[in-house]
Amino acid sequence: MQVVKKIIELTKPYWWRIFAGIILSLMVSGITGAIAWSVKPALDEILVGGKYEYLALLPVGVFLLFSTKGFLSFGQSYLMKSAGMKLVRETRNRLYTHLLNLPVGYFNKESSGVIVSRIMYDVEALNGLVSDVLKTCIVEVPTVIFLLGVALYRKWDLAMMSLILLPLIAYSTRKFGRGVKRKRKEAQKKLSFLTHRIGESVFGARVIKIFNRERIMGEKFRSDNQRYYRELLRVIRLKEFTKLLIDVVTGAAIAIVLWYGSTMVVNGTITAGVFASILVAIYMMFSPVKKLGEAYSTLQEARASIERIDTLLRAEHEQGGRTIIPGFQKSITFEHVSFAFPTNNHPVLTDVNLEIGYGEVVAIVGRSGVGKSTLADLIPKFYVPSSGILTIDGININEIEIRSLREQIGIVSQDIILFNDTVKENIAFGKQDASETEIIQAAKMAYADEFIQEMPEKYHTVIGDRGLKLSGGQRQRIAIARAILKNPPILILDEATSSLDSISEALVQKALDTLMRGRTTIVIAHRLSTIRNADRILIIEKGKIMHIGKHEELIEKNATYRELYAAFLHSS
Length: 572
Known about the structure:
The protein is α/β, with parallel strands linked by helices.
């Protein structure tokens, strides 16, 4: 009953299509039963009764009856399957929008492959709920019962002659199946675009959120999804038209068989009515029996898919407050802040107390895994403190509206997220209404304009998946230009110059110096060249702030800092 209730809930918006499809389906079922039952009395009355003047009309009548059945089947299948496809389209849109609003922590515990599978393949299984399960259960069960009764009542062995129809059906299926195959390939290409869009959103969750682009990305996805829907609808049209032609061919073939059988009846070899009735009943019974088996398998697949989809939908959205902050003006304050990931009881940060003033440059250093990046990730609320209070300008971060909070923050990290779009679109990601002049100016400030001008289409060059057509230093400078264009008052640099050669690092460092000017900056680095001039340097050990000071002071007094600095000099 839970499955039935879920099916009703999911298909409720499309019940007018489903209802119309059911009406047509019942008409098809009625014609199917009528064909099987009425053939014998019609033939017996005409042939046995001696009314030979109507004999020539019999094949024509059968042909028209099967053609009518084919048109009705085409209509009901198209309605039911288009309703199923609408269900798939809207469920995908709903899941993708839901995905964009999940917290970053969700993507740490759930693999991107699982997420993509649920949105693409599990949702696709919902199509069968409408197009196969509902239609089959409503129509095919009574059809099978009636046809089976007719077959048992007649002499069933004579129906074996209907096997001569199989070559005709096979020919029609093969002929039009080639067209279906071509259209299916086109639909799969459109589906690959959707998969790519989802993959980008999973990998680029941080960038999408910090630039508040959930709505724009949702609109792009809906546009791609609509194109896939239209292509797939063409596949359905061709498949259903193929079924229509098969029904017409079948009707014509049966008309020929009946004509030949009626000749045998005239000659006294067999009874035409019995022969025709058995032939029609047995032939018509095979198809619904097969569909019922397929419907049961589809229901089981859909049931598992529904459970996995519900698991994703039950994941809670990011929780934000209602307070809109006009801009960052005073300080960022950590008061006894601790943090542990939900799947790990061991705290990453413990009792952090820190105040970062407006315009101050604070550097955070320490060995790998001590919580440097996690501390910074709390500021844009990628994660929520397990205990303690984090405030911005004296307002608890949990009370600030998320979009308003992230408008104040820019991030440049080691793991640069760029999208398979033009250079221009990547730079303008954080400011949709930016003019081309502003984009170019931001690129110049990031020392990126020179290499952009050397590209084949300059700012309109597509940079490939995750910017793989660019070098590491070029990707970093594009990301810096993006942050410059957004112009946030708070800047987080998370190992922004790591893994770069000395030449690239020098250019990126110049761009960072430009970006940091006049901003409150939190710098995280293994390579200490980026933090010598910081106002304060924090040394984190085992999730705690152990030492605070300037570069010269820490070199003189702190062994941990001297060790880190010596390692930097050695790597250089």
